[in-house]
């Protein structure tokens, strides 16, 4: 388990307020100490990551949870921009989406997503998925500083 002292910042890129709330609740439910930041579209995600405008003081996330269905710039466009940016490409990106379409899975991995997770519909299963992502990417995997 991650302690409060070793917590990292996690950027959730999610336009659905309900899914964002469930993710926040999943973090709280399992005592995930990582700080969750939420942006609602692809343009804001890149602004957050690049410290632009209202996000000038945004922390650098240690993990990005990225939905594919986003306004302004979709998730694949955001993923491509992240992985093409020498400063951002080392941040692990987990695609967290409702799409089970094979073309979305393939395209995400072609764009160098670190993982592709289909959002479970059931709350308990969703909480479990968030917990597993946290356990793996925060506790198990060594990340660059």
What's the CATH C level? Alpha Beta
**Average pLDDT across residues?**
89
Shape category: globular
**Helix share bin:** 40-55%
Which percent range describes the beta-strand content? 15-25%
What does this structure look like?
With 145 residues, the protein is α/β, with parallel strands linked by helices. It has helices at residues 17-29, 42-50, 75-84, 102-110, 123-140, and strands spanning 9-13, 35-39, 63-66, 93-97, 115-118. The protein has one domain: Response regulator (Rossmann fold, 3-Layer(aba) Sandwich), CATH 3.40.50.2300. It has 5 helices and 5 strands.
Produce the secondary structure layout.
Elements: E1 9-13, H1 17-29, E2 35-39, H2 42-50, E3 63-66, H3 75-84, E4 93-97, H4 102-110, E5 115-118, H5 123-140
Parallel strand pairs: 1-2, 1-3, 3-4, 4-5
Helix pairs in contact: 1-5, 2-3
Quick structural overview:
The protein is an alpha/beta fold and 145 residues long.
Relevant terms:
5 helices; 5 strands; single chain; Rossmann fold; 41% helix; 145 residues; 16% strand; five-stranded parallel sheet; alpha/beta
